[in-house]
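User: Fold this; tokens only.

Assistant: Input:
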Amino acid sequence: MRNPVTLDTFKAILGLSVVASLAATISALLIEVPVWATFIGWIAFFTRGITARDGAINLTCVLIGLVIGIAAAFASAALTPYLGALTITLVVLLATFLLLSLGLLPVINNLTGFFLGLVCYFASHLPPTLDTFVELAMASALGVLGGLVASLVQKRLSGPEGPAGDVSITHP
């Protein structure tokens, strides 16, 4: 059941918006990483739990996805001279099999996080290098940190009667 619209609801939404704005500003102006990649981390934070521990697990999954994306790019470059257009079939099959298999791990098993990392790498159109990994990892980490701060702000501003992490707007 959704909560009715209250002043606390709007305060929480404003708090979340301010945190998102700060994360984007820090990404763009201070550490010069792609803002969209920061929001990959933000999304990952909210995929499972809203605690620092869950955020760390989700970030780890994103980073694993980044590594697999970079490895897939290397594999594509190596296999294309031999397989041509069919390279994508083999590389996607192997990457997907690996990511889905990692979902069987006991703790570090957030499939959404794995795929967000993979997509983050391929959406960047950056070369498969350590610098690329560091840049996208920093952006994702900032996004996860922003998500954690946002969840804490939301909890504080949503008022004592509302459950933490449940800011929703409904029409009467």
